[in-house]
Amino acid sequence: MGTISEKLNYLMDTKNAIKNALIEKGVEVSNTDNFRSYSNKILEIPSGEELFEPSLYSTIVVPNIEDITGDNRTRLAQSIEKLVNLSTTNLSETNQYIVKLLFQDKLSTIDCALQTDDCKVQYIMDMSRCSQFTELSVGKAVFNFPHGLIELILPNGIKTIKNSVLNYVTDLKQIYIPNSIETIEDKAFYYLPQNCTVIIDKEPDSISGAPWGAYYADTLQIIWKRT
Questions:
Q1: Cα(220)–Cα(173) distance, integer angstroms
Q2: CB distance 85 to 117 below 8 Å
Q3: Digit-coded pLDDT (tens) for 185-224
Q4: Is the backbone peptide bond immediately before 211 cis, with ω within 30 degrees of 0?
Q5: pLDDT tens string 78-94
Q6: How many angstroms separate the Cα of 108 from the Cα of each of 16, 104, 142, 197?
Q7: Cα 118 from Cα 85, distance rounded (Å)
Q8: Residue 5: beta bridge partners?
Q9: Of the candidates 128, 180, 124, which has an alpha carbon nearest to the alpha carbon of residue 155?
Q10: Which of 68, 84, 113, 209 lies at a CB distance of 3.0 to 4.6 Å from 144, suitable for a disulfide?
Q11: 112 forms bridges with which residues in the sheet?
Q12: Partners of 151 in the beta sheet?
């Protein structure tokens, strides 16, 4: 996994991810609590809840690492597989298991082709904390999902969405774009599927070029929030 320093950093990121997950479940965690005490903290989660729920919906707080590529991407996919395997065996054919991936502020590069072998798994990718991103561009952020990605939440601070970033996202239902956006390139939404909704937190038509090359422009719904 790398040097001792890198291993220690990854361990600290894991600790912080578990800490954040515990806090989201209503458990009090202080800076003086050591990692070993977290096993007891899990027992404090209110009745009926677990850290990663074996239910139809779970949130994974991704460790605060700089990139989701290569080995990091593989480890994340394996974590999702383990989580989902707890829950999908008894799902009916019509049910879906939704995993929300909550990324942290150090993330600066993401190359996501995440999917499991189970087509019943769907993803919400929440990048709202990712302050390092000022643009989505090839080499910095690419999303290739043959199936599974249903919602993408982009971070405040994003200024540009370039072409060839959202590829084959055939299940995507919604994208949230914050007020910081300034430019969307002319073919950025070419691969968006039918009936996708794009929510832009700006005044109507303040970004030129709509529908930005969408092949299914007739079914693309654009919602300007600041009306």
A1: 10
A2: no
A3: 999 898 888 999 999 999 998 999 999 989 999 999 999 9
A4: yes
A5: 777 666 665 555 555 55
A6: 18, 10, 12, 26
A7: 9
A8: none
A9: 128
A10: 113
A11: 143
A12: 124, 174
Higher pLDDT, 216 or 38: 216
How many angstroms separate the CA atoms of 74 and 81, rounded? 10
Position 54 scores a pLDDT of 39
How many residues comprise the chain? 227
Q: How far, in Å, CA of 164 to CA of 75, rounded?
A: 25
Q: Do the Cβ atoms of 150 and 120 come closer than 8 Å? A: no
- pTM for this predicted structure: 0.69
The pLDDT score that the predictor gives to residue 107 is 81
From residue 39, alpha-carbon distances to 18, 34, 78 in Å are: 10, 10, 22
What is the residue type of 227?
T
Between 11 and 149, name the one with better pLDDT: 149
Written as one letter, the residue type at 216 is Y
What are residue 75's phi and psi, to 5 degrees?
Answer: -65, -40
- Report yes or no: 180 and 200 within 8 Å, Cβ to Cβ: no
Query: 100 pLDDT exceeds 70?
Result: yes
Sequence-ordered list of residues with C-beta below 8 angstroms from that of 25, at least 6 positions apart, any chain: 45, 46, 49, 51
